[in-house]
Every structure is written in C-alpha cells, then in structure tokens.
Design brief:
26% strand, 22 strands, single chain, 32% helix, FAD/NAD(P)-binding domain, alpha/beta, eight-stranded mixed beta sheet
C-alpha cells in the first residue's frame, strides 16, 4: 500500500487526505492543532460556486490611489510592512491585466465548477448536512451606480458560466431580510452558493470521516519534514518520527517558509483577515456582503460574524484591527449587532498567489514531495476539488480538468 504524510489539517489538507485514502493510500494527517483550527475556521463560511473569476487587483488610477491613501476599507496596509509585500503585489498587479486575468479565469472557473459537487459527497458521507444551507448569499449595493454595475456583472456571468442570480429592489431586500435597518439601492442574490454555520466544524466533520475510514491524525511539527534515510519522507510527531514514501505540504500561508530550505521560492501575497461574532441583537437569514466597506456579515452558530477584507501587515496580527472597527461601525447602520461574543477578534492569513491560482502538483526537485496550497479567499470552496486533483495526480489518474495551470513548476 502506498503511504503519504499530509502536513496541514485545514480544509485543503483534510480534503487531500480523504481523496488519497479513497485511492488506496495509507494516510497520516499531521498538524500542530486539531483539524479546522487555523485559517479554515475563520472564513466567511461560503462555498462560492458563483466565484468563477478570481479577484484581480484594480488597475485604474482612481482605485489604486484610493488604496494607496487608505481611503478604502477592503484593503489596508502598514507602511512598515510594505517591503515584504511589494514583490508579490507587483506580480499580482501584472497578472491582473485584462488578457492575463481572462486566461487565469478560464482555469479558475473549471475548478470552481467542481467545488460544490465535491463538497456534496463529503457533506453527505460525514453527516454534516445540518451545518450547510443551500440558499445563496446577498451582496448589498449602496448606490444605484454600484447596483447597475453589479447587475451587468451578474448578467455577464449568467451568459458565460450559467451563474444564477436575482436582482432585489430595496423593498424586496427589506422583505427578505426584515432585520435590516438600511437596504441601500438593493442587492444581488447569488442563488447557488452554500453557507456554512460553522466552517471549523465542517472541516472537523470531514476529518472524522477520514478517521472512521481508517486514517490517522497526529500532532506534529511540520518543520521537521526531511528526506528519509532510505527514500521517502519523515516528520517528527508527539508519537515519534513517522515515515512515508510521499509527503504533501498543505500548510496554507506557512507553506512557502517550510519549502524554502528545500530550494523553492514561492511568492505569496499574505492577506490577513479578522472576524468577530455578535449576539443579542437582530438577525439575518443569509450572509450579506457590503462591498462598499469591505466586509461580510454571516449568520453562524456563534452569532453574526463580521469578516474583514485584506490587511497587508507584518507577521503578527494588529493590536487594533482598524478594518474590523470600521466594519463594525458601518454594520451597526445595517443591523442591530448586539454585543461581541469574544473578548478579542480572531485573525488568520489567506495565502494568495500572484497569479490567483492555487499551487497543486509535484515538487519539481524532489521525488515524492507534493504541494497543495495558495487558494487565497477560496480555500473552503476549493479544498475538496483541488484535493481530488492532487490525489489524481499522485495516483497517476487522469485529472478532472487540465492541471498544468496549477503546477508548482510555474514558479
């Protein structure tokens, strides 16, 4: 039986472990925390089947100036941290040119198209249906001009990709969400995405499915990854050193640092995000995105979760997350939030590649070393789909779509 160590027990690592297990691999999942305890816990909890285009960096001068002068709340940076971000950001900007972004989107749309179907299988087998609602989410627009642009985009996505949506006038939005204080110029209801009331719980349910099928999870230090004395790979864990013929690096934003000693240089835009739950106030039926102020309000098991946009900062979270403060202030004009559930906000880093595509495939210089990270804002959405792609590559099977665009060799 072929054997593999999967480093990282977020959605990407757990999904990889499940797909490998189903192809006859003996799999040990290794992480310092329980499954779903890091970035996979902290997202918006939306499986975004409508997100067929990755988010490009604006290229018009007005938008860039607004970001540079920190007028917008969806992106914020600290001047002191810019040197560590500037290289990957410039590459991201280069890849955001319309023709390049169009080609990237063609590859991206093919894996997004598989995302819900892969989740559906795991949700059913894990018995996690109670965590998932298949009713979409809404994007509120505050001005008629923004609403008109959004309606045009929705029309384009419907024509090109079959993305379903519904335009809601202010009165329709108010009827659908009676808890809203303000309805702006209306909203786009994206009909096909699914929302998860506990993203960490969903990953944990997938991990339990993996364990019930005979997989192993052990706490360990991914930084001890090393070639084995007789070939293969070893990692130190609380149960001692383990060895397998293959290893998968699925550590999200920590992956480039682990791979650097092996001679790999992966540029990454590390976007820090924050969230905080609120309870005791009003309610929402479905998640509500407020793009004018760069946050999403999501009804979850712990209460209403506010998730922020992208903070380009140092390796540690901010003592005062300005984006979250501004988002909370703005959100209180939309809905009665109540009071915070946690004393301190959660913070995590989204691993975004400069070309907006995840990295999936074999490490070019080392036999038996495989790489799976870089999903940006769509780790929860894409983990099971790209986990399948990785398992197909490792098992010598045809992949469900052309995998060349995601190859680590491109870096």
């Amino acid at each position: 039986m072929r054997s593999v160590i999967v480093l990282g027990a977020g959605i990407v690592g757990v999904a990889s472990a499940l797909h490998l297990q189903r192809r006859g691999w003996s799999v040990v999942l290794v992480d310092r925390k329980p499954p779903g305890g890091e970035t996979s816990y902290g997202n918006t909890g939306i499986i975004q089947s409508e997100a067929v285009r990755p988010y490009p960096m604006p290229r018009d001068l007005a938008s860039l100036a607004s970001m540079a002068m920190r007028r917008t709340n969806d992106v914020r940076y600290s001047v002191a941290s810019l040197p560590r971000h500037i290289g990957p950001l410039l590459r991201y900007w280069w890849h955001s040119a319309p023709d390049r972004h169009r080609r990237i989107s063609q590859s991206y749309a093919r894996i997004i198209a598989q995302a819900a179907a892969e989740h559906a299988v795991l949700i059913a087998e894990a018995g996690a249906g109670a965590l998932v609602r298949r009713k979409g989410y809404r994007t509120l627009h505050r001005t008629q001009a923004a609403m008109d642009r959004a309606a045009l985009l929705a029309e384009t996505l419907a024509a090109e990709h079959g993305v379903r949506s519904q335009i809601l006038a202010p009165a329709q939005l108010a009827a659908a969400e009676p808890g809203l204080i303000e309805t702006g110029a209306g909203a786009i209801h994206w009909l096909d995405p699914w929302s998860v009331s506990d993203p960490g719980g969903l990953v944990s349910a997938y991990a339990d499915l993996f364990l019930r099928a005979g997989g192993s999870f052990v706490h360990g230090d991914a930084g001890t990854l090393a070639p084995g004395p007789g070939g293969g790979w070893t990692v130190d864990t609380v149960d001692g050193r383990i060895e397998a013929e293959a290893a998968v690096v699925a550590l999200g934003p920590w992956s480039p640092d682990l791979l650097r000693p092996f001679g790999y240089r992966f540029p990454m835009v590390r976007k820090r995000g924050y969230h905080l739950h609120f309870s005791g106030g009003g309610t929402l039926d479905l998640p509500l995105q407020d793009p004018a102020f760069g946050y999403v309000l999501v009804p979850m098991s712990k209460g209403l979760r506010i998730t922020t946009g992208a903070e380009l900062s140092g390796p540690s979270k901010s003592d005062r997350p300005i984006q979250l403060e501004r988002a909370e202030q703005t959100a209180r004009g939309l809905v009665d939030l109540g009071t915070p559930v946690e004393a301190e906000p959660w913070s995590g880093v989204r691993p975004c590649m400069p070309d907006m595509l995840p990295v999936v495939g074999a490490a070019p210089k080392h036999k038996g070393l495989w790489i799976h990270f870089g999903h940006g804002h769509q780790g929860l959405t894409l983990g099971p789909a790209t986990g399948r792609m990785l398992a197909e590559l490792m098992s010598g099977e045809p992949t469900f779509t052309d995998a060349s665009a995601f190859s680590p060799a491109r870096y």
